Amino acid sequence: MGSYSIGGRTRAFLKVQDGCDYKCTYYTIPLARGISRSDALENVIGNAKEIASKGIKEIVLTVANIGDYGKGEFGNKKHEHTFLDLVKKLDTLDNIHRLRISSIEPNLLKDETIDFVSKSNSFVPHFHIPLQSGSDELLKKMKRRYLSNTCTNRVSRIKETMPNACIGVDVIVGLPGGTDKLFLETYNYLNELDISYLHLFTYSERPNTEAVNLNGIIPKKVRAKRSKMLRGLSAKKRHSFYENQLGNRLTVLFENENKEGYINGFTENYVKVKTP
């Protein structure tokens, strides 16, 4: 199950887990990929060393549900290792300049992991949290395993330990039952949350999911309007985050491709940089 792919010559995507045991109403991953199962820790470390030997500077950990790492390792539902075990072990490896966590559920992002990353040799201050909604009513309708205050607490903890950390969140727009009032609840919640950008998904009906049978279908024009509003909020958040980084001395990992006389790259905290 463990594998990796190379994105250009600077970054690799290392798969450490697949499948998901969550039964969210809109979710198709359990149907498509099955139950949660993890690659053996020794295999992950072996792949990471192989990537490092190729001169790759950054590894992104990719998964369906990374916080569940350890479940299904060796075909066993018990956790032989935890996500924190994985993080600690990867951090000891030589010749890996950056390790980046792709996405982690707010209820599975523990204080211990945040604190370790804040002092890490290799893990960068960048977190991506699949929040999905700022409305507790909609989170319950989605059958998520947390409420909005969990995400609030996670963001606060990250910013306390890593003030310059970049934090992105996933948001779904247009789930059935998402009234104007509940959408504004989400918008206002996100507006106040100390995050750096949004990753938006416009809800679309998927067969064999509970959501297709929910009442209160949102017209596609309304979904599009709400998506546009949140894209605007995301742009404002990213601009504010970038402005706050002005004057900081950061390390940029540049891509090899020359684009009309310029090269692009990203700082450790995911600020995009362009230079001649």
Summarize, please:
The protein is of the alpha/beta class and 276 residues long. Helix content is 34%, strand content 20%.
Would you kindly provide a written description of the structure presented here, covering whatever features stand out?
The protein has about 280 residues and is of the alpha/beta class. The protein has three domains: about 1-125, Transcription Regulator spoIIAA (2-Layer Sandwich); about 135-245, Transcription Regulator spoIIAA, CATH 3.30.750; about 250-275, no CATH class. Helices cover about 35% and strands about 20% of the residues. The protein has eight helices and twelve strands. A four-stranded mixed beta sheet has the order 1-2-5-6, with helices on one face. It has a three-stranded parallel beta sheet with strand order 7-8-9. A three-stranded antiparallel beta sheet has the order 10-11-12, with no helix packed on it. Helix 7 links the parallel strand 8 and strand 9. Helix 4 (about 110-120) packs parallel to helix 6. The radius of gyration is 19 Å and the shape is globular. It starts with a strand and ends with a strand. The mean pLDDT is about 90.
